[in-house]
Structures are given as C-alpha cells and as structure tokens.
Recover the amino acids of this structure.
C-alpha cells in the first residue's frame, strides 16, 4: 500500500513538459483560426508572441552606430578627426622651424619633453591657401607608432556622428585629399582618416635632418 502511494505521489509531482508544449501550440492554432481558447491560455500565448516580436524587432534595428570626433576649423573649412586618436589640444608656441623639411612640416614643438612635428594639412593635401587665419592650436594625434601635431585655427568641440550620415569620397575630392578622407557629412564636415595619416612615412622627420 505504501509503495503504491509513493508511486502515485511521484507521478503527480512530475511535470509533463511535452504536454504543456502541445497545449501551447494548440492554443496558438486556435487563436490563428479565430476561435476563442481558454482566456488564461490566450493571454499566455499572446504574451509569448509579443516577446518574440519585440526581440525580432530589436535584432533587426540594432543600436545606431556612430563615431566620436574632434571638430576643428582650418582656413575657414570644417575638419574632424576621430577622438580615439586625439591625445590633447596644445597651444601653438615656441615653434622651431626644421631646415630641409617638407613644406607641410611647419616645425617642431616641445610638449612636456616630447619633441613633435607640427603639420599643416592644407599644405600636405596641396590645397590652396584661403587668406590669413589664427593658426594658434595644435591637435596632437597618435597611435602606437607615430605622434605629431595638426595645425588648427579653432577647436569646435567633440561630438558623435551617426555612421549613416557619413558619405564616402566624392569626385570633387581627388588625389591626395581623397586618399586621406574617411568621409563627408552634409554640412559639409571633412572627416580625416587618422590611421592613414599616422601611417604615412612622409610625415616622419628623419634623423639625418639637422635641427
């Protein structure tokens, strides 16, 4: 007698998960056919369907991808460079010219013991000058291999730009400028390819150049 009772208790405590799934599938089918299932079952099915729909929508849309850039003005044009590569902004002072250096290398500066070359990207891109400007800021960019300063008139600030708003190079941006262009926005804002600039060996001032 005790054995039969224990067996009965174990059978009652076991959950028939396959039966639960069958009932859930049947309830879905009833709803889709337009009939009225049990209210509790209907609520459960609708809740599960809402969760699945929300998950699918989230997977399709995903988070909006963007990049953070430091924006600056140079010769009345708006430029930007990814802030990931920007170490700091430094005032342009005590610039020492470097004999025999390329025209786009304005000179070198001492930043707390680090000797860095300062680059005029307008000259580096062989773009025409647009009159006198302030040229009083240096944006120090770096990666694990290179570090130098980029000349700027004014630092506008740091902001995020959605990737979908960045257009690839257009036909009017040709030659060396297009080569170092990450993209453009409608403003227009010229986003430079910092990694490409930092990898260019022409920017290195070789040791044989005497200061």
């Amino acid at each position: 007698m005790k054995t039969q009772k224990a067996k009965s208790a174990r059978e009652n405590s076991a959950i028939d998960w396959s039966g639960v799934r069958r009932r859930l599938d049947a309830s879905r089918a009833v709803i889709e056919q337009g009939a009225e299932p049990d209210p509790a079952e209907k609520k459960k099915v609708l809740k599960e369907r809402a969760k699945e729909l929300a998950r699918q929508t989230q997977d399709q849309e995903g988070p909006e991808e963007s990049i953070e850039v430091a924006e600056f003005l140079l010769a009345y044009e708006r430029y930007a460079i990814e802030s990931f590569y920007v170490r700091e902004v430094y005032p342009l002072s005590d610039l020492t010219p470097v004999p025999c250096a390329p025209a786009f290398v304005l000179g070198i500066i001492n930043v707390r013991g680090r000797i860095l070359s300062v680059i005029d990207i307008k000259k580096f891109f062989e773009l025409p000058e647009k009159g006198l400007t302030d040229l009083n800021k240096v944006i120090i960019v770096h990666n694990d291999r290179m570090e130098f300063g980029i000349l700027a008139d004014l630092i506008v600030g740091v902001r995020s730009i959605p990737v979908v708003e960045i257009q690839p190079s257009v036909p009017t941006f040709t030659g060396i400028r297009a080569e170092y262009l990450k993209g453009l926005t409608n403003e227009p804002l010229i986003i430079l390819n910092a990694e490409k600039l930092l990898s260019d060996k022409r920017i290195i001032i070789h040791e044989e150049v005497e200061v």
Notes: The chain has a mean pLDDT of 76. Strands lie at 66-74, 77-82, 86-91, 105-111, 114-119, 137-142, 147-152, 154-162, 181-184, 190-192.
